[in-house]
Design a protein that fits this description.
This protein has 207 residues and is α+β, with helices and mostly antiparallel strands. Helices cover 56% and strands 15% of the residues.
Length: 207
């Protein structure tokens, strides 16, 4: 028997009931803290991924824009020089026009050599212009286009649809997709509308 002053020895096999809840709460806190760190890292990773994708897209747009600007520079850099070349070509053409066709066909000696030299020079200049993307604008017989043609006068003509280019005073040229010089033209007036005109088609259908 134990005396009243003796304290019972603790049983090592008996669990510490007070320590167990404290350990569980600590473990739960650790898990929450770990999950918070994971969530923060995932959010940061998503933000970095979005920034990377945006940067890649911006760099691709910059690359395309730079290539387009370089292409435009190459295509249109000679625009001013091409206009000067056209002025010289026009002068050669006018020099040939003042010589009657009959005289050109029967020319001999120095005159023949001169005419042939002018014709050869004009053809070579046209070839060089075409080589660099300068092409004539089709005008005669076409419907007047204010973006490509410059109307100088109207020509009364009942045989042509109104608005048709019937005379070309000066040939126009384009370089790439741009008009280098509009064609100076005379436009038919007084004729009927083109059969392709929607208004004409509607009138014919209702007649």
């Amino acid at each position: 028997m134990m005396s009243e002053d003796e304290t019972p020895a603790p049983n090592p096999e008996q669990p510490a009931t007070d320590a167990a809840p404290d350990a569980g709460e600590a473990r739960a806190d650790e898990l929450k803290a770990g999950q918070a760190v994971i969530d923060a890292l995932m959010a940061e990773n998503a933000e970095l991924k979005d920034r990377t994708l945006r940067t890649i897209a911006e760099m691709e747009n910059l690359r395309k824009r730079t290539e387009r600007e370089i292409g435009d520079t190459r295509a249109y850099a000679i625009s001013g020089f091409a206009r000067d070349m056209l002025a010289a070509t026009d002068s050669l053409s006018r020099a040939l026009v003042v010589v009657p066709l009959e005289v050109r066909e029967h020319a001999e000696g120095t005159l023949k050599s001169l005419i042939e030299g002018i014709e050869l020079t004009e053809r070579e200049m046209q070839r060089l212009l075409a080589k660099h993307g300068v092409k004539p604008i089709e005008a005669h017989g076409q419907k007047f286009d204010p973006h490509k043609h410059q109307a100088m006068f109207e020509v009364p003509d009942d045989t042509q649809p109104e608005g048709t280019v019937v005379q070309v005073m000066q040939e126009g040229y384009s370089i790439g997709d741009r008009v280098l010089r509009p064609a100076m033209v005379g436009v038919a007036k007084g004729g009927g509308k083109s059969p392709a005109d929607p208004e004409t088609a509607s009138v014919d259908k209702n007649a």
